[in-house]
């Protein structure tokens, strides 16, 4: 049986209900490209919902390259695409608000909320040294104190109403040492700017 055999579609669609498999999902979407009349929008939405759980990986992006625009701009796929856009642009509170109306689309993905919270915590750990505890709860969509403490402990430690994020190479300012080549380029640029100012 060829990899691009139309008869594989039902088995791959059924497999998309089970454990996440990047290669099988890519094959399914590729088959949909070759046989567009067989494209099943609810299955595509399910595959995309599970791909969101892989963030910050690029699975979702890979899938989007294989999905025709007409499918991506219609329900049930469009709401999942919009959820992805919220996450990618760090509009986390808006993501959770939109998820309320799209909950049935991600119900096929056990552990969806926890996977998204893990992604958000990764973003917080990369960008913050100190974050307000209330704000952290809002972007994680967690209001219960014990649950919030669990997430707080994953990225740092609580200090009153703030969370001090464990320092890493990514969330600290770095002093860049200039080498001789960069220094001479800077001097050349400064000379050119001074010369231009005299002309003007």
Describe the 3D structure:
The protein is mainly alpha-helical and 200 residues long. 63% of the residues lie in helices and 6% in strands. It has eleven helices and three strands; from the N terminus they run ααααααααβααββα. The longest helix has 20 residues, at 180-199. It is extended, with a radius of gyration of 23 Å. It starts with 8 loop residues before the first helix and ends with a helix.
How far is the N terminus from the C terminus? 73 Å
Low-confidence stretches: none
For the largest beta-sheet, the strand count, sense and barrel status come to:
3 strands, antiparallel
Mean pLDDT, nearest integer?
Answer: 90
Strand order of the largest sheet: 1-3-2
In total, the number of strands is 3
Rounded radius of gyration (Å): 23 Å
**What are the secondary-structure elements, in order, as H or E?**
HHHHHHHHEHHEEH
Structural class: mainly alpha
Oligomeric state of the chains present here: single chain
Beta-strand level of the residues, as a percent range?
5-15%
Number of helices: 11
Question: Percent helix among the residues?
Answer: 55-70%
Instruction: Write down the overall geometry.
Output: extended
Quick rundown:
The chain is mainly alpha-helical and 200 residues long. It has helices spanning 9-15, 22-34, 41-52, 59-66, 69-72, 77-88, 92-106, 112-127, 133-140, 145-155, 180-199; strands at 130-132, 156-159, 162-165.
């Amino acid at each position: 049986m060829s990899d691009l055999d139309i008869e594989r579609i039902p088995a791959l669609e059924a497999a998309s209900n089970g454990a996440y498999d990047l290669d099988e999902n890519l094959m399914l979407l590729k088959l949909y490209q070759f046989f567009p009349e067989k494209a099943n929008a609810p299955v595509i939405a399910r595959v995309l919902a599970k791909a969101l759980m892989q963030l910050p990986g690029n699975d979702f992006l890979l899938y989007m390259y294989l999905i025709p625009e007409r499918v991506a701009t219609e329900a049930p796929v469009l709401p999942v695409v919009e959820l992805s856009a919220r996450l990618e642009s760090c509009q986390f509170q808006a993501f959770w608000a939109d998820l309320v109306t799209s909950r049935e689309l991600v119900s096929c993905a056990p552990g969806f909320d926890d996977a998204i919270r893990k992604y958000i915590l990764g973003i917080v750990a990369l960008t913050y040294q100190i974050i307000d505890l209330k704000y952290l709860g809002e972007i994680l969509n967690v209001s219960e104190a014990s649950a919030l403490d669990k997430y707080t402990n994953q990225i740092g430690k609580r200090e009153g109403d703030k969370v001090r994020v464990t320092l890493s190479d990514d969330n600290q300012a770095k002093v860049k040492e200039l080498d001789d080549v960069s220094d001479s380029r800077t001097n050349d640029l400064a000379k050119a700017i001074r010369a231009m100012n005299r002309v003007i």
